[in-house]
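PROTEIN DESIGN WORKSHEET
SECTION A - STRUCTURE
LENGTH: 83
TOKENS:
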């Protein structure tokens, strides 16, 4: 998934921090974005919606943890993020 928008990317630590900050400051906005990602993926014909899993590193790991905390309809999380 691309939480920042199509083609939006940082090239330095400061730029990445600036991209993440709005989501860190507004976790409801992040939850809405993550929910939309899962719903979009689940609606694709080539996706088995009963077998969606999530994995992430750094900001992606935070996203996976937030998905688990909010009860997103994801059936698989890595063991280290499920606790």
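SECTION B - SEQUENCE
RESIDUE ASSIGNMENT:
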């Amino acid at each position: 998934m691309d939480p920042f928008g199509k083609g939006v990317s940082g090239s330095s630590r400061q730029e990445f921090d600036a991209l993440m900050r709005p989501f860190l400051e507004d976790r409801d906005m992040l939850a809405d974005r993550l929910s939309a990602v899962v719903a979009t993926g689940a609606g694709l014909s080539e996706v088995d919606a009963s077998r969606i899993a999530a994995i992430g590193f750094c900001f992606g790991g935070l996203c996976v943890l937030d998905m688990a905390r909010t009860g997103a309809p994801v059936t698989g999380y890595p063991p280290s993020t499920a606790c």
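SECTION C - NOTES
The chain has a mean pLDDT of 87.
The first helix runs from residue 13 to 25.
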